[in-house]
Amino acid sequence: xxxxxxxxxxxxxxxxxxxxxxxxxxxxxxxxxxxxxxxxxxxxxxxxxxxxxxxxxxxxxxxxxxxxxxxxxxxxxxxxxxxxxxxxxxxxxxxxxxxxxxxxxxxxxxxxxxxxxxxxxxxxxxxxxxxxxxxxxxxxxxxxxxxxxxxxxxxxxxxxxxxxxxxxxxxxxxxxxxxxxxxxx
Length: 185
Description:
Blueprint lengths: L1 E2 L5 H12 L7 H6 L9 E5 L5 E12 L5 E5 L3 E2 L22 H12 L4 E5 L2 H4 L12 E2 L9 E5 L10 E5 L14
Parallel strand pairs: 4-6, 7-9
Antiparallel strand pairs: 1-2, 2-3, 3-4, 3-5, 3-9, 6-8
């Protein structure tokens, strides 16, 4: 697991297209990422033995409602389709479970190390639940656009970060300058 570099952009985008398909850019989560850079130090890739990008995960700065606390939005998390059972996706999070969780584990550990209070994502509870994510604290939050409420999940890294949060999740963080609309660095 290594930090993503500018040289990884083309390989990352091609991997995301293969893993998630052409509709990936129409998701509500994409509205929060559009025109923004990932949170500082929280964009990672996994490479195979020959150096080819086979996994990616990024975390993005968001605000939880109007004037709410800062948090992170995780995604997209993608692994080369032929390698999905190899544990790369999990590895982007902290070492909690199977080796296949490398990306997920690494991302969570780094977010905690950098002092972030919570991570949100839109995903499958059975997969992300093993990393501590649940919908238990997201019932008063909403995404900016269509989404399935039961798939809005959160992991609190600092106790109390999600206490009393409500409203629509808003984009925050570093903007991309000089890029065409819709470009995601």
